[in-house]
Amino acid sequence: MIPADLRRALGLAEGDVLLARVEGGDRLVLENRRAAVRRLRGSWRKVAGSRDLVGELLEERGAEAELEDAELAGDEGDITKAREKLSRIGERQLAARPRHKPVR
Asked: How far apart are the first and last CA of the chain?
């Protein structure tokens, strides 16, 4: 049971679902779904930075479809071009990944 004053301060209503997680190894955190979604979106925004992850995914899927079409048609020239395009996309995505310092 969460005291009424805390529920009001957090904007919790009867029937709201709380998510529980351990933070820092010794702290229990309860948060409602809205707060969890905001927190997760913020963390993904940091990962993506200025990259257009949806655009990258669509570009990659389009190139994969081109390769599949070329393979079905049996056109070796188009197969080679599609593979090269996929390779360039993969290299560009790898180069754009954030670099993390090793944890010690």
From this structure: 41
Q: Could you tell me how far CA 36 lies from the centroid of its own chain?
A: 15
Query: How distant, in Å, are the alpha carbons of 59, 66, 84, 85, 102 from that of 73?
Result: 21, 11, 17, 18, 46
- Say if residues 50 and 64 touch (Cβ distance below 8 Å): no
Q: Is the dihedral of CA 11, 12, 17, 18 positive or negative?
A: positive
CB atoms within 10 A of CB 82: 20
Burial class from Cβ neighbours inside 10 Å (0-12, 13-18, 19+) for residue 46 reads: exposed
Is residue 21 helix, strand or coil?
Answer: strand
pLDDT in tens, 19-52: 899 999 999 999 888 888 888 887 777 766 778 8
Q: What is the pTM of this model?
A: 0.51
